[in-house]
Amino acid sequence: MYELLGNKWHEECGVYGVFAHDEDVSALTYLGLYALQHRGQESAGIAVTDGAWMDVTRGMGLVNEVFRHQVPHMDNQYIAIGHVRYSTTGSSLLQNTQPLIVNYSGGKISLAHNGNLTNAMEIRKKLEDDGTIFQTSIDTEVILNLIARSRKETVEERLADSLNQVKGAYCITLMTENKLIGARDPQGFRPLCLGKLENGWVLSSESCGLDVIGAEFVRDIEPGEMVIIDDSGIKSVHFAPKQQLASCIFEYIYFARPDSVIDGQSVHDARFMMGRILARESKFKGDIVISVPDSGTTAATGYAYEAGIPFVEGLMKNRYIGRTFIQPTQKKRDTAVQLKLNAIRSVVEGKSVIMVDDSIVRGTTSGKIVKMLRNAGAKEVHMCVSSPPIGFPCYYGIDTSVRKELIAAKKSVEEIRQYIEADSLHFLSIEGLKESLTAVNPNNMCYACFNSDYPVEQGKQPEGSGKYVFEQRKC
Amino acid sequence: MYELLGNKWHEECGVYGVFAHDEDVSALTYLGLYALQHRGQESAGIAVTDGAWMDVTRGMGLVNEVFRHQVPHMDNQYIAIGHVRYSTTGSSLLQNTQPLIVNYSGGKISLAHNGNLTNAMEIRKKLEDDGTIFQTSIDTEVILNLIARSRKETVEERLADSLNQVKGAYCITLMTENKLIGARDPQGFRPLCLGKLENGWVLSSESCGLDVIGAEFVRDIEPGEMVIIDDSGIKSVHFAPKQQLASCIFEYIYFARPDSVIDGQSVHDARFMMGRILARESKFKGDIVISVPDSGTTAATGYAYEAGIPFVEGLMKNRYIGRTFIQPTQKKRDTAVQLKLNAIRSVVEGKSVIMVDDSIVRGTTSGKIVKMLRNAGAKEVHMCVSSPPIGFPCYYGIDTSVRKELIAAKKSVEEIRQYIEADSLHFLSIEGLKESLTAVNPNNMCYACFNSDYPVEQGKQPEGSGKYVFEQRKC
Amino acid sequence: MYELLGNKWHEECGVYGVFAHDEDVSALTYLGLYALQHRGQESAGIAVTDGAWMDVTRGMGLVNEVFRHQVPHMDNQYIAIGHVRYSTTGSSLLQNTQPLIVNYSGGKISLAHNGNLTNAMEIRKKLEDDGTIFQTSIDTEVILNLIARSRKETVEERLADSLNQVKGAYCITLMTENKLIGARDPQGFRPLCLGKLENGWVLSSESCGLDVIGAEFVRDIEPGEMVIIDDSGIKSVHFAPKQQLASCIFEYIYFARPDSVIDGQSVHDARFMMGRILARESKFKGDIVISVPDSGTTAATGYAYEAGIPFVEGLMKNRYIGRTFIQPTQKKRDTAVQLKLNAIRSVVEGKSVIMVDDSIVRGTTSGKIVKMLRNAGAKEVHMCVSSPPIGFPCYYGIDTSVRKELIAAKKSVEEIRQYIEADSLHFLSIEGLKESLTAVNPNNMCYACFNSDYPVEQGKQPEGSGKYVFEQRKC
Amino acid sequence: MYELLGNKWHEECGVYGVFAHDEDVSALTYLGLYALQHRGQESAGIAVTDGAWMDVTRGMGLVNEVFRHQVPHMDNQYIAIGHVRYSTTGSSLLQNTQPLIVNYSGGKISLAHNGNLTNAMEIRKKLEDDGTIFQTSIDTEVILNLIARSRKETVEERLADSLNQVKGAYCITLMTENKLIGARDPQGFRPLCLGKLENGWVLSSESCGLDVIGAEFVRDIEPGEMVIIDDSGIKSVHFAPKQQLASCIFEYIYFARPDSVIDGQSVHDARFMMGRILARESKFKGDIVISVPDSGTTAATGYAYEAGIPFVEGLMKNRYIGRTFIQPTQKKRDTAVQLKLNAIRSVVEGKSVIMVDDSIVRGTTSGKIVKMLRNAGAKEVHMCVSSPPIGFPCYYGIDTSVRKELIAAKKSVEEIRQYIEADSLHFLSIEGLKESLTAVNPNNMCYACFNSDYPVEQGKQPEGSGKYVFEQRKC
Ligand SMILES: Nc1ncnc2c1ncn2[C@@H]1O[C@H](COP(=O)(O)OP(=O)(O)O)[C@@H](O)[C@H]1O
Ligand SMILES: Nc1ncnc2c1ncn2[C@@H]1O[C@H](COP(=O)(O)OP(=O)(O)O)[C@@H](O)[C@H]1O
Ligand SMILES: Nc1ncnc2c1ncn2[C@@H]1O[C@H](COP(=O)(O)OP(=O)(O)O)[C@@H](O)[C@H]1O
Ligand SMILES: Nc1ncnc2c1ncn2[C@@H]1O[C@H](COP(=O)(O)OP(=O)(O)O)[C@@H](O)[C@H]1O
Ligand code: SF4
Ligand code: SF4
Ligand code: SF4
Ligand code: SF4
Ligand SMILES: [Mg+2]
Ligand SMILES: [Mg+2]
Ligand SMILES: [Mg+2]
Ligand SMILES: [Mg+2]
User: Is the CB of B38 under 6 A from ligand 3?
Assistant: First the structure.
């Protein structure tokens, strides 16, 4: 088996929640997860309650594989939460799938979590010293134990108690037998928004998860806010003191779907603007602008618009490629990229091509694509990247390669250009990136993987251990 | 779907463990579970360790279904434990399969458990009040939490601490990164024995699990004993004060495999003797002795031997019948029994038949078999049961019907005879049952389901709730 | 993977058919196949018609695996046929499963076939020379092509035409859109019987297939007879001239279920009688009679009866063993037999044991069982086989080993005894075998695998090629 | 379950073939099928030969589902053929998957077929009258029977014989034990091209299937040509007299991948040109050009280029949507389209939008998309379709709806515009379509579904029966 996606950063999770009487809440959650599938393709789960019991289905695979035969369903179900998750092969264990369901003194809780707690290891150690057992390697279990140990009475107070002990990035949807709760970390790393159904409420990592079920977008959950939904309506609590905001800029660059709006900023518009500013910065002149589909397309159309150069399809993407395939012969090293992308000779032949992609992680794929274009007859290949060089790992829920795998951690732009054998190479500047945000304050963002300005003191993470602190990855 | 086995008591679990360098310990565990399959057909699991990591595969189904493609395997693996489990449809959830693996302050533990703790609910409530969360509905999780909370240092002391807090029936195999531990409750309800490999040790619920891998039987684990196996050898600890023994007599009557020897008593010999004494007690005269296969066969051969009446096959059992099948037509009510058993007309026609079975739970199956024999031409059907009437539920690890489903709880022997439409009916007396044990002290046994003499004060179990104290069954 | 059953002859197929308005005919066929499962465990299939369309489900595996989720079903279905099949790994291809459904000039036909045509290769060659293509390697396709090429008008005439061209052994159930037809070869090698439902008819390889659905046994289909069932009732045609009958004696010895009655002779009674005569012939004196379960049991009870020696269980069979399992260590060569059978020490220790089995093919299993008994303490092991030595292959539907694998083809009885290390060894004589048939004429039987008296001139079968004439096995 | 793709015409099949010593030919075929996956998502199959034996794996589902665990493989394999197929639920039977493998007098043949024979029913009837049986409902079986019945000697002569009897559209890859043959019908309806490996040859429905394995494009197979590849090299035969060419224009409009080149014409360039001419014809003025992804994108970029209006992404497509999903609530009728596509409000709000798609079949999806854009704030929606109105069914291998489902068969352009509620609607003219072909002769094309000029006299096809002549669809 050969891993096709080893070259990219991966969003780790998407969370979802529905509270609605007289709706098929688990089916709505299933549709919501479909829309959030890009946030995690390794496992999926849905938990439901009818006010007394909870049921859950979790499994490895895509949403339509896990729920191929049926979505969990209870008569009179009215709350459901869901989760999709990315994870690397080594740790993609069934027992690490979410949502978890637990019993504690206050009843039942089910929890889905997106993000990464930077002090999870510390807390876990303390809890273990205190006699707690852990059955998974996911942060979620830490949060649940803190809830159970809280001396507070209501579940929302207990949750606040719990969240005030953890540090890092998280968005969660939590369900008891009669409440749906959503919460977002005080710095707002990951997105979470609220939608309204005719007679109910929805929580979703991205607004595209509301659109898919026809829910009306209400607003984003604020950093440090918790919303509690039950039969008496919706309530908002700020569980943590104000802090410097640090929303992940990479959501706008790559992770989120272009049709989502996060904190008031359209992802599409940000990307389109990145492309425009890239054109202004790079000043490349070429015959055509092409994208590395799909993630490069929005910025490419922006680039073409700004530069007044036609946008055309120079690379075709095979939409049926799954995450893995059986590697045929040792001879053909480039099969993985060739299987995914194909250059269109008649488009690029003899042309000076401006190729736009969102980011460069290790650089190997970009190099292969440049070569593919040259083989198809491109005269010149100028690569434009709609983000700055990634020089530092992420500790907030992204499965980053260890630092030494990041090409920009070791090489200058010119060295990278040589490595990928492009005629020119331009990365969007941090200033340009900030400028591309027109509807959100660019200073409320995290840019740490570009400038190492980590917004939260992240403890003593041993280099490269970010992902496997409990022997498994977290989400 | 139609449940074929709804008429019987079911053994709830089998446990297994192997410690051996230079052996494929997980494959040996797989073979051991094959031999213990009769103790649980609903789920199976194997956990292994190589001294540093632990891996587990668990799933619903028979051993050869769960491990159809592969048995968990690590290079340098040298300890493995395994579990098979019976459970009713409602609660046969994947998350309730064993062995569990947890992390606690002392490292990793994997645990497999057979039995039923009568005070699990109480302890669990106390633990929950103290901030503990529970992710399954199995007693195993209670034991693991008590281990983690113990102030003792070694895992064996912690386990002793834990077991001294629980009441009821249990046999466990437990594994850390470098130890294999077996323990049996102080009253010895369930069996557990120790075997020796050339360079290693084996723990098995029944001795047939040793035979299958060619391990030499060493001895039974004593009630209240714990054996600890590691690289320094084997150590025995008595973790609890001596108590009145109460080994489950039903293991000899029905649960265990006839080729197993428990506490020095051959199961086959006990059953054969039950048949002989049954013949002496009943004094039935007939032309032939037949059994209800397979569970009635050993006693039937004993009956035939004692009575000097030929043993012949009057009923043929379809060996391919799984637990469930698709019910064809509403018209044919008796399909389930007919699918499983068929009378041989040429054998029973015109004959006075003595039919031997091991026990009667609800009586419906026996009634159908009697009718089947009459339809096949039997002149007379005299039923002999190699156990006394079951009048009371079991709280020690057996999935008993609630009391009101037990036919002997409501009807006299004569009423049962009329209900099953037999010409005569005889149940083995408790005295006869005791007499059938030739190699073990009959006074060290539990007979509670026959005489309500429960050996452990079992708390205030609400009638009928034995099985679902945590919403799910235990093992 | 390790093949557990490599040591036995295997019946190749079972066929079934139901014609009944107002019955769930496909579900009844499913139950029938359950009862015939012992005739083939490798694949199963059911075809149904509602008078216009035909539907079929076929698959590899046991009946309850192939139909795990559902049995084929049509509204208004009223005819169904079914098939179970044994085959070795190499040729167990999905495309060789039955029933086949084809279109021909007369409409649709579905056919299930048990047996082996000795001139199939010849006919197939002729048909191929004439421009016919073959998509499977089963004889069934030859019969269907002959039907389609017949100049006759009705399907029954065409079938007669077809069957008059083939030689060898066959029992078939055939269905058109409005007829159910059963046919048996003129020498009657394989069994086929007719049963009656309240408002319909049933065809089954063995009578146990009638019992399971509560159908009344009517009679056996006669050799050379064809019965045609449609809305106008049932019709019988003798499609072939009288020939010397040659029913397979091995059906009585091993293949058929003991509760079946074939051509008026109870299989149980024949086996019981074989055991009795064996006792008379062998005159062995021992302490106990045990059987090699399950196939040896009936004869063993007969032996015990005749000899006046107690029948007891000395070997326990693991009922959960499937056809294959993962072989653990190279060290343990005997695992396969040990996994399947276990000796009961307390029964055999110090005893002179008379062990009864039905037949010896290669002798390796028998040798291991003798050794197992000795290891369990048996003083003497006297083996009694309820059939004569098998010295010759079968060409009539049995998956025989090539001749050189048959131990009796190369060794004398004394040599075999030495090979299996028994104290004595006795095979039933052919005369004794004939004498055991009390209800059927012993001269109407095939004994060719014992005496090479092949009842049909079987063409020039190259030695050892019997099984793979079309590269795949036939049924 | 709800069918997501019910609104489109579907290409029915893709075929592939590799002949190469020292290459993993079945793995290469697997990669080729991946690239041809868009031509059929319902089933896939690969057959291989090592010169003596043939093996095949076929199954329902996508290429990576059917070959999830393994691709068929033989030591010394050197020829392989493959097939992907689309089919509607009703007839997506396992037995109709390809490639077929048959035995005939000349040996073994495996065949994969793309297209539709317009006289298959006639020939089949004649063959049936002549005694032939049919086991599938696919045209492939007719071709194979004609090969087997040919009096010619070599397989290529027999194939020529066979193909000269059939009418209609076909491209086939055929393999014997030592030859790989490709053939294309005399009118050239479907594409088939030839590629070269270092030491071998490849046949593929589209050139993208060569690119993926790094094979060099050699040329297209000519209409009426057959190429025969064996150890002596490659040979070309024209098996049929020259006829008026009639390549399917829909391959360029929609079916083929944009990165393929068919008969010298780049599919991308044709589509881009369709978009440009569409712009010239429609003269719509708007703020932005958007596409209905993915099929509308190439023409949309051409439109934007010609009109000088920016191309932007106004609709986001969920790439994870499989063919079916579980329909949630009855309330939400538009879920299917909403799940697949989402409008980007910030892009379309307040804008006059020119929306480009490739074709309109039933019009329901287009109507929903127009509505989606209006809900997202679009001021005006002008729809441009890069093909003429489809008024007539196809008989050449396309799964067309019956004529009455084609909206253009019943409604004028203005009526369609009203039905989909667009502000304007323009279809590309046939002249414009012809003009868009710059590298191939536009008069050598079939336009029958637009103008009913059927290039082959297609027999008396009863209306609507095109798809189910043998009760199942053909390919
Ligand atoms: N592998 C591929 N890469 C890119 N485009 C493809 C691929 N396969 C098919 N296509 C194109 O996708 C189009 C169909 O996609 P789309 O419009 O999304 O679906 P629909 O069938 O609903 O119209 C076709 O035009 C086809 O040419
Ligand atoms: N459903 C059944 N019930 C009882 N006996 C059966 C059944 N099916 C087959 N048999 C008998 O079981 C015998 C084969 O069983 P066994 O000896 O256990 O396996 P084998 O000899 O094939 O290893 C045959 O004699 C057959 O008649
Ligand atoms: N592997 C085995 N081999 C032989 N007997 C077994 C085996 N496993 C379980 N048994 C015995 O089978 C009996 C249960 O079989 P049976 O009577 O056929 O089913 P039930 O009574 O549960 O319907 C038990 O007495 C058990 O001791
Ligand atoms: N459902 C979707 N529709 C359209 N674009 C999506 C969807 N989901 C994710 N994306 C975008 O696709 C991009 C990733 O796609 P792509 O570039 O093809 O893969 P890769 O991860 O190899 O870069 C991300 O930018 C993401 O925003
Ligand atoms: S470090 Fe980078 S990826 Fe991580 S949260 Fe900050 S901006 Fe996002
Ligand atoms: S109550 Fe009965 S089944 Fe339970 S342990 Fe006691 S004897 Fe065994
Ligand atoms: S040769 Fe033997 S197995 Fe074959 S039909 Fe004759 S008796 Fe039966
Ligand atoms: S009718 Fe249309 S779809 Fe069919 S072959 Fe002709 S152009 Fe292609
Ligand atoms: Mg990308
Ligand atoms: Mg029983
Ligand atoms: Mg046997
Ligand atoms: Mg489209």
Answer: yes
Cβ of B340 less than 6 Å from ligand 3: no
Q: Is the dihedral of CA B95, B4, B302, B249 positive or negative?
A: positive
> What is the spatial distance between Cα C19 and Cα C17, in angstroms, rounded to a whole number?
7
C-alpha count within 13 angstroms, C-beta hemisphere, residue D18: 32
Alpha-carbon distance of A407 to A411, in angstroms, equals 6
Helix (H, G, I), strand (E, B) or coil at D187: coil
* Rounded Cα distance, C404 and C434, in Å: 27
- Residue B367 is predicted with a pLDDT of 97
The better pLDDT of the pair A30, B7 is held by A30
Interface test with D, best of C127, C135, C153, C158 (most D CBs within 10 A): C135
Three-class SS state of A167: coil
| Rounded-to-integer distance, Cα A156 and Cα A225, Å | 11
Q: Provide the mean pLDDT of chain B.
A: 90
- Local confidence band at C77 (pLDDT 50, 70, 90 cut-offs): very high
Strand order in the sheet with A200-204: A54-60, A43-49, A79-85, A13-20, A200-204, A193-197, A216-220
Q: How far apart are CA B322 and CA C62, in angstroms?
A: 10
pLDDT higher than 70, residue D332? no
Number of Cβ atoms within 10 Å of the Cβ of D419: 17
Task: Work out the average pLDDT over A178-194.
Answer: 97
B475 is catalytic: no
Whether C31 and C417 have beta carbons less than 8 Å apart is answered as: no
* Structural domains present in chain B: 2-246 (3.60.20.10), 265-447 (3.40.50.2020)
Residue C170 to residues B342, C117, C182, C233, C466: CA-CA distances in angstroms?
A: 27, 7, 11, 24, 16
Percent helix, strand and coil across chain A, each to the nearest 5: 30, 25, 45
The complex scores an ipTM of 0.89
- Is D135's CB within 8 Å of C135's CB? yes
Distance from residue C469's CA to the centre of ligand 4 (Å): 55
Question: Which SS3 state, helix, strand or coil, does residue B440 take?
Answer: coil
Question: What is the structure's pLDDT at C109?
Answer: 97
Q: Which residue of D has its CA nearest to A62?
A: D320
DSSP H helices in D12-68: 25-35, 63-66
Q: pLDDT band at residue B333, thresholds of 50, 70 and 90?
A: very low
Residue among A29, A112, A56, A36 at smallest CA distance from A475? A112
Gap between the Cα atoms of D347 and C261, Å rounded: 80
Amino acid D465: pLDDT:
37
Looking up tokens 């190369």, which residue turns up?
Answer: C410
Q: How crowded is the C-beta side of A293, counted as CA atoms within 13 Å?
A: 22
Residues C115-130: pLDDT tens digits? 889 999 999 999 999 9
Average pLDDT (C18-43) is 95
Other CB atoms within 10 A of residue C126 CB = 14
Residue B42 Cα distances to A45, A254, B1, B11, angstroms: 23, 45, 16, 11
Find out whether D433 and D47 touch, Cβ atoms under 8 Å. no
Q: For residue B93, which of B401, B351, B349, B473 has the smallest C-alpha distance?
A: B473
The reported pLDDT for the residue numbered B5 is: 38
Residues of D in contact with A329 (CB under 8 A): 23-24, 27-28
Identify which of D94, D102, D131 has the shortest CB distance to residue C148.
Answer: D131
What's the mean pLDDT in C192-200?
Answer: 97
- Distance, CA of C113 to CA of C84 (rounded, Å): 10
Contact indicator for A289, A303 with CB cutoff of 8 Å: yes
A445 C-beta closer than 6 A to ligand 5: no
If pLDDT is split at 50, 70 and 90, which confidence band does A198 have?
very high
